[in-house]
Amino acid sequence: MCLGIPMQIKEINGYNARCEAKGVEREVSLFMMQHESLEIGDYVLVHVGYAIQKIMPQDYHSTWELYDEVLEGEKSERV
After folding, report:
1. N or C: which end of the chain has fewer CB within 10 A?
2. What is the CATH number assigned to the segment(s) 5-78?
């Protein structure tokens, strides 16, 4: 199973962007989305260092809510 990480674009430099999610920043390639109109503040789905899809802000937030629930359930199973 593959996971895409929802992130927000903080800075764009050519085909690269500095993206952030939950306080963690990463360098992300925008090469696969070179024909999309991307701007600072946009949300993207990131897989293995590449932005693969532009997403809506509500998708960003709901995806992180689900990921947080999964992680919380995993923590409670370990106890």
Report:
1. N
2. 2.30.30.140
